Amino acid sequence: HKDGDAFPRPFEFDPSRFLGDAAAGERFSPFGLDHHLCPLASMSVQLATAFLRVLARRYTVCTRAGDTAVRGPYHWSPAPGFAATLTAREGRAT
């Protein structure tokens, strides 16, 4: 994920690089490839999708303006002061 040929400016946080053209497994493989594939990769994606659907239906999510993301040794991480606020949508919270 650090290859400049695969991703221009690989050390900058730029989610727009995934818009349009789907990234091929050779360029982006968060769950590994071939015999190194995470055995629970499919379940992880399904669980995250279900969680985000419930979150989007029941809550409004707002982030506090603040610092930008920071580059850790392996991936981007939220800034130290990052915080999100969940506000229940009327009649939707459990």
Could you walk me through the main structural features you see in this protein, from its secondary elements to its overall organization?
- There is one protein chain.
- With 94 residues, this protein is α+β, with helices and mostly antiparallel strands.
- It is built from 1 helix and 4 strands; from the N terminus they run αββββ.
- The protein has one helix at residues 41-58, and strands at residues 59-63, 70-71, 76-77, 84-88.
- A two-stranded antiparallel ribbon has the order 1-4. The protein has a two-stranded antiparallel sheet with strand order 2-3.
- The longest helix is centred in the middle third of the chain and has 18 residues, at 41-58.
- The radius of gyration is 17 Å and the shape is extended.
- The N and C termini lie far apart (39 Å).
- The model has no long low-confidence stretch (mean pLDDT 79).
Structure summary:
This protein has 94 residues and is of the alpha+beta class.
What overall geometry do the principal axes of the alpha carbons give?
extended
Low-confidence stretches: none
Summed over residues and divided by their number, the pLDDT gives a mean of 79
Strand order of the largest sheet: 1-4
Distance between the termini: 39 Å
- The number of helical elements comes to 1
Helix content: 10-25%
